[in-house]
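Board work, copied verbatim: NADPH:quinone reductase-like Zn-dependent oxidoreductase
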Amino acid sequence: MLEVMELPTPEAGPGQVRVRVKAAGAQPYDTAVRAGWLPPGIGDELPRIPGNEFAGVVDQSDTIPIGTEVLGFTQLGGYAEYVVVGADQVAPKPAGLAWEIAGGLTAGVQTAEIALDTIGLKEGETLLIHGAAGSVGHAAVQIARRRGARVIGTGRPDNHDFLRELGAIPVEYGEGLRERLAPLGRIDAVVDGAGGQALDLSVELVADPARIVTLVDHGRAAQLGVMTTQGVRTAERLGRYARLVADGEFTFHVRRAYPLERAADAHREIETGHGRGKIVITVA
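↓ predict structure ↓
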């Protein structure tokens, strides 16, 4: 259950920053928190505020000037007017970057780069991405292409032109996928954003299951011998991609922005499992 509540304003301690939030990304991680899942290291105290990525303006800190526009990450707390995090969990927001994009950037680009590092993608290899038009998927397409890989991306037909623009070879997902992939040659590695039958097929197509990383089917990863993302988010990485997006060198698509009071509607859309790009919550 999601409910808008009035809570005490948090205070920043030494080495922390308090950010007046402008926008926060929404993602399956948040819907899992709403359903009762606890991220590692988080206690079961209530109320529990979802949101692990945000953008806004620093209004309390002993390390970063007040008024600095930043984007950042946390475990919980992004769906709020104020969030407190360590100063090492924020990066400067480029002036030309829209708040909605800044608020939703972290999960997409950081997860994508960590995933590609996990499977050791190399120049000249062919990468298959299941769910290539999604938030992480469309970031992974571009990062892989920047690394010199050939990318095949599964998605609905209405997303195929979008995927082509990003440099991927689009393929419709669902029944008959194996046959549609066959003419495209060997697949060296997979980023799985779909799970289920798509992951099963990936294990059959790729010689080494350790070259497959699943973003969604964590419960079967060990059984199948595939990877889950191994790595930590960093402000350096976030700032690097924020600059690329602001400079027009990287695309990050925001599908829809919901006001905070409609966060439940945002979760309903996420749980459909379909859609291009990112959903964002606007806070101020």
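The first strand starts at residue 16 and ends at 26.
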